[in-house]
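Re: Re: token formats

Sure, here are both.
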Amino acid sequence: MGHDKKVKFVAERLDSGNLGPGWSAQIDEEGVVTVSGPCPVCHGDAYGPVLPNLQAASLTESLLVVGRPPSEPDEVRRIRAECCCGAKHSGDEDGGSGCGRWWYVNVRL
């Protein structure tokens, strides 16, 4: 399914879940975990954590995944992901960073 730029901008949290179709997770040698895939609403690019764009409260939540290798086998991490499609969706008065949706993705390491 292609990117639907007709979806209206709404800043809202979606239900959290596991990695869905088209999503992948990566962990680097420093233990930084990232996820990427299609936005479940507008189907544009989405990823997480999005550290540069986070507000202070959310930054604390996302820093839990940075620079920390898995502490035990099958550890599950909760990563904040958001739509980062870059399109200007109608209703977005700040100018084109995505459709406004964000959610947590559970990643089993």
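Second one below.
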Amino acid sequence: MTIHIDFAAQRNCYALGWSYGEICVGCGCCGKPSPERDRARYEYWLDEWEKHVNFKYWSDDAEMRALQEKNHKLNHKYIKSRLNRYAQKVAINKLFQPDYETIALVEV
């Protein structure tokens, strides 16, 4: 017999893109304020940026496409600002060197 133990995501889960609000993935984004939490959040936003840049599920319907483009522009600004925020925190904490080549592409 095998036992599977999982943990529900917190009510205010930070990494909903990873957990879908259902199961805690143990990413460290919701932990106490610390350099490790900042690094986890930086990695989360870097992953969100990659998904955003590589989005290819555009609708054929003109009305829906216009809405998608509007949302894509808004997400672009938001994700850039969050990524830059945590990249700066990670650099200050000197946990590791952020990927400045990627960050240069997402200057606010």
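The radius of gyration is 17 Å. The chain has a mean pLDDT of 82.
- S.
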